[in-house]
Queue: 3 jobs
Job 1
Amino acid sequence: VALKLSAAAVTDVGLLREVNEDSVFTSTDLYAVADGMGGHAAGDVASSLAVTVLRQISDSGELTPETLIQALTSANSAILTSAATHAGQAGMGTTVAGLGVVRLSGVEHWIAFNIGDSRVYRFADGQLQQLTVDHSEIGEMVAAGVIDAATAQVHPRRNVVTRCLGTDPPPDPDIWVFPPVPGERFLICSDGLVVEVPDAGISEALLHEPDAERAAAVLVRMAREAGGRDNITVVVVDHLPTSAEARIDDTTIPRTRLLGSL
Ligand code: CA
């Protein structure tokens, strides 16, 4: 990967759950969060199978949209196979959301993806944008403009996921491919963060903690302080500005022109 990146991941059981059913994975070209579902710690198995398959694809050569989609299909099969052969794993599943680097016509691009309600956000110029659309009853209502994000955050059915890994037929992932812009920052997280911390709080933390490791730690701490009712997993990926860009950004280019150039 030629992009200058800095990343940090934190996963936390939260204050009320006994088991952390989230799994997280980071490498040089792929970052992912999986949020498992299923009783008797089977959710933990499902999310860990998902990140294990993603790790294999990341280790086995250059990531492409095709190998990523193939990996998600393999992860789905691995979860179904395990569920069929182990007592107590029936019906287990997991979300997955992530960000990777792929090469298109020789040029590095981001690829963001999700299945379920784990999220990928982009933060740039002080603006937080959710790139993924939640595959949940409520998330689909938000995307359709039926209810707003604030209503969704407290909606009693916000946990009902409409797509997950561990289903037959396999779920379709949503995929976005887009060009990198130095200075941008990404957040990948499970719903244990967003049920506790509104977007404004997330923005605030991402704005005031320039270091990826500190930002990830602060976000998890905020979710715990707000109740920590679910497992909390956060990955922060910084696409570092080059030193020349950082200097120009600070001193010479008016803010409006920077925004306009994106
Ligand atoms: Ca969760």
Job 2
Amino acid sequence: MMLDVENALALTLALVQRLEPIEVALSGCLGKVLAEEVRADTDMPAFHRARVDGYALRAMDVQKAPAVLEVIEEIPAGGMPPRSVGRGQAAKIMTGAPLPEGADTVQWLEKTRPRSDGKVEILEPLGPGENIGYRGEEVKHGDVVLPAGQYVAPAQVGVLAMFGTARVKVYRAPRIALLSTGDELVEVDQQPTGAQIRDTNTHALGVAVKAMGAEAISLGIARDNPVELREKIRSALSADLVLISGGASVGEYDLVKGTLRELGAVVHYDRVAIKPGKPTIFATHGSTVIFGLPGNPVSSLTIFEVLVRPVIRKMMGFQRLHNPTVRAALGQPLPHKPGRQSYHPAWIESQGDGLIVTPLPSRGSSDLVAYSKSNSLLIVPKEASRLEAGVTVEVLLRDEFFQRGHP
Ligand code: AMP
Ligand code: MG
């Protein structure tokens, strides 16, 4: 059955479940999604504190600046001030240190001058409440500081630490089994002879999976031999997700679909109206989700971006499943044959006050070197024919867009 991209995505995602929550240490939650909300175990700030280095004093005493004040103590961050600041007095205070009783403002150190007799001269007046962080002004004890469903980036790790959450529940990332198929494939450290080629997909897909925070289990290469293929796939079925590359089309040695059926998997579709990547198989076996990806490296990576990444994100509890798409002006004309929605390797960048996208020259779905120069995929709608320069097109941003500068 051949599905449009949109229908294939909808059918696929409908059959994928979010995985269960697990508890992890702070160091293990980056890139995951919170399965519980986190509340503040304290006010923040937890006490009135100085926002700057300077002198805590009473604003009334410095209305007529310069004014000379007695320095009664020095309050470092981490110390509790034992004394109260009275009329005509000041306490030297460091950023983050608690405001002493009696003081109602903090003058910047730069606006003061110490005197040889131990007193301090306040050079400028200031109002009450300056340079003070009041208790609870940022967050109140019991407030939700991180909602369930929140993606954990470094700032969220900081928030967890701030409120003493050393362990937290996140949705488990999938265990993903990777299998390359093909009699022609040899390992990366082998010298191909005759018509052999090196296995590319296990490596590219393996790191793509790991970069998402999922676990990659490499099952290596299976020959185009029904028995070997069946045993390798069978051993993969305990994973959450199985990515098989090669053997997905209709050639005599394309055994993946038949083998999946023999093993009791349900094949939901075996072709998608997408270019590249038409021979894509999607199957399930119990709760295990299986993709048969086309063997050409650009095809398998494109299908990874369009179909597999959203599946992994759904398993991980993400609400937004897709990488962002943006609209950009096409930098040069692009021929297109109507019939399949195309994803063309492209370079997108800002130019003037907009975005411009340039399709990169490519020899097609085997041309991984061309693809490796791209930071995005230019989406050409199914029915479109030639696109003229300057028209607005949709562009799928890949991680490379955020990671890389200009070539
Ligand atoms: P297939 O989908 O098995 O018909 O393979 C399509 C093309 O992709 C063929 O040229 C294969 O040699 C190539 N191919 C298949 N698997 C891989 C792989 N793991 N790494 C690199 N190329 C592959
Ligand atoms: Mg093959």
Job 3
Amino acid sequence: VVNKMIIASNFKTNHTRKSTREYLIKLNNFISEKSISNIDIMVFPPSVAFDNFKDFNKHIDIGAQNAYHTIRGSFTGDIGKEHLDEFNINSILIGHSERRTIFNETQDLIDLKFKFYSSYGFKIIYCIGEPLEIKEQGIEKTIDYLENQLKSIDLDYKNLIIAYEPIWAIGTGKTATLNDIDEVHTRLKNIIDKPILYGGSVKACNSKDITDIKNVDGLLIGTASWNIDDFCRIIDIVNL
Ligand code: PGA
């Protein structure tokens, strides 16, 4: 079975509810006009932009960038599953490097989130990636590091998608080379039989070369996806 390509946009701390709606309207129109059917499109807006997405959810899978492993409760500043249920959101990013490094999410916390949201059948994009000092120690050290981020989660979980995002390539404009991506994805495929997305400074000009790599099943895009025309262009290019 050939899996569909997956292209995901991670808004991070960008877009309001208003601009998210405008973005989704344009994206939805674009997908219908171009009859894009061989790519699964996902969008991760900030949680304050969650809304009734029923006009869009035929073509676009809308997910959460983060949530706490609870239905509700006393976790000031965080949201729970109830807030996702209100808008029929069934997809979530877990383990993004910005959560790991800026918000100091430990692997233990990430494991709890994974267990909780997988127990409800969420589609999970689980993010892994090595820092520059590990990359500089070579491929074996890099794979060890990534394996360590994978070892405590259920790799057989049916709604699991992996995103390989080398930390040094995120938001820096420095994309991994095609060889780097090929090598890491090939090694990862030997460990885990799930779709593996690449993320880290993906843009229109490198998107096709990256998705043409055999073991790349899609893209997780930040910066270059925030402008709707740029994102549509990437979808168009990958769709060729
Ligand atoms: P970037 O972010 O495309 O801006 O590098 C990717 C990500 O963090 O998912």
